[in-house]
Amino acid sequence: MKLIAWILACCTGAPALAGNPPAAPAREMVIVVGAEGEPSYKPIFHREASSWSEAASAAGVDVRTIGETAASRAELKDTLAAMPKDGGDLWLVLIGHGTFDGRNAKFNLPGDDLAATDLAQWLKPFQRRLVVLNLFSASGAFMPFISAGNRVVLTATRSGTERNYARFGEKIAGILDDPDSDLDADGRISLAELGARATAEVVKFYEGQQRIVSEHALLDDNGDRLGTETPLLNGPPPAARETGSRDGSIAAEISLGKSARALSFTPAQRERRAGIERRIADLRARKIDLSEDSYYRQLEALLLEMAALYGEVRASNPAAGQTR
User: Fold this and answer.
1) In this structure, are 133 and 210 located in the same domain?
2) How far apart are CA 85 and CA 126, in angstroms?
3) Which of 79, 139, 283, 299 has its CA 20 to 30 A from that of 3?
């Protein structure tokens, strides 16, 4: 319930760019497979790339995969330069290993590595919404360089010092079309839900190995270059930064595709949902002035109201919204 509260609250106050992406040109995805370093990582990275490619293709997203040649960096640069700078969402999925020496953040490629500063420069011309998934170790160091307005950035780590192999990439690739990833059971799997579920899977892995969690995924979609750690399934909503800004509102609206179980809202129902979301946002803004008991009592009432609305919508969509 706390995770759903976070996702619902994140949906409030989204800028105009949230919601359905422009229809033309088509949404696109560029997948970049980095250097494996050790042979054992090669099949893992291949599975991740295949999972993303299959999920994107099934959702009608145009896909191009780059990697495993000494010219990968140049190919990525040329590919981005040739792509339309306006239109539908562009997803950039980077799979592999990364490095950070205290100053320079890099994504490891078979030939020349990709520096965060170079990627930031290549992305500057884009006006279309960018979804940049840095699914590699030390990827948190990329955040200050590539976070910007009209972008959603997800990194496998919260800093460049988390240098060990990041399992977040393989965990998120393994749940792209898993019905259990639809945490609020609305028939669509948002990027926010994928991040939360993958984080839970990462924690489960480390706890199962009786090891300290050495990676913490970070999400940024408000362009403040700070990011917010993705929440645990059984944890509280992430605390707001000192700036008072929130991450997650855009990511909660973005998904690769729409499930056959997706719910269909009437205009009036969409307005009611928006109204509840605005009230949740207002409550969150006033949290510091409320007692903990009062805050959670009011939040629970709003969530129950939202649940009742979803129940009404499901009743009018008998073939949709059915879970597992």
Assistant:
1) yes
2) 4
3) 139
